[in-house]
Write a structure and sequence with these properties.
CATH topology: Rossmann fold
Bound molecules: 5-O-phosphono-beta-D-ribofuranosylamine
CATH architecture: 3-Layer(aba) Sandwich
Mean pLDDT: 93
Number of domains: 1
Helix content: 25-40%
Order of helices and strands: EHEHEHEHEHEEHEEEH
Shape: globular
Radius of gyration: 18 Å
Structural class: alpha/beta
Low-confidence stretches: 214-227
CATH class: Alpha Beta
Number of strands: 10
Distance between the termini: 58 Å
Amino acid sequence: MKNLVILISGRGSNMEAIVRACAHEAWPAKIAAVIANRPDAAGLAFAASRGIATAVVDHRQFPDRAAFDAALAQTIDGYQPDLVILAGFMRVLTEGFVDHYSGRMLNIHPSLLPSFPGLKTHQQALDAGCRVHGATVHFVTSKLDHGPIVAQAAVPVRASDDAAALAARVLGTEHVIYPRAVRWFVEERLALDGGNVTLTPPEPQWLFLDHTDNDTSANAQTAGEGA
Ligand code: GRF
C-alpha cells in the first residue's frame, strides 16, 4: 500500500481526478493527505468530504521560501508519503525540498514541455502560433517545470481558441494522464534512467485528443489547404 500526499493551491480538479481514480480503480494506495498553501483552496472541501486528512501550510506565515518549505516538508513527512503529487501547487520550491523528494515527487504542467515552462502557458502557445498544445506529467527536479517526462497529452489548437478555451481542452486531458501516471508509480512500473522514464510493461505514455467536435474554422482551414 503506497501513501500518497497531494499538494494543491486552488481548485484541485487534478487532485479530485486522482482521488476518484484511486477509489474507482482500487489502487493499492491511500490518499494520506491533501495539503494546501492557502486556507481558501477550494479543493480542500472536496478532500474533506471524502474523509481525507487535510492540512494548510500558509506560505504567507513564513519569512522566506526556505522556512516555508521546511514547515511544508515536516507536514508532508508526518504522513510518510511514498509519493508527493503537485496538483496545481503554485509555489516555486527550494532545491533542498526538491532533493528531499527526489524520484518521488510528480508535477503536472499545462504545456508540452520543454515548451512553455512557467505561467500563462495557454496564451504562450497561442502567441507562438502552435497548432498543438497539451500537458506534461513529470518528475520534479530543481529546474522549474523540467524533469523526466512520465506522460504527455496533446490537443489541437483551434483558430477560434482563446486562452480559456484552450485551457479547458488541455485540462480535460490532464484529468486522464495524471491519474494514469500516478497509478504507474503506485504499481512500481516507473524507472528513472538519468533524464528518462521507462514504463514496464510498456504502454502509450501519450494521449492525443481525438478531433471529434465540430470546429468550422478548423474545417474551413483544412479544406482551404487541400484545394
Ligand atoms: C492545471 O492546469 C495544472 O496543470 C496547473 O495548474 C492547474 C491546476 O488546476 N499546474 P487544478 O487545481 O488541478 O484544477
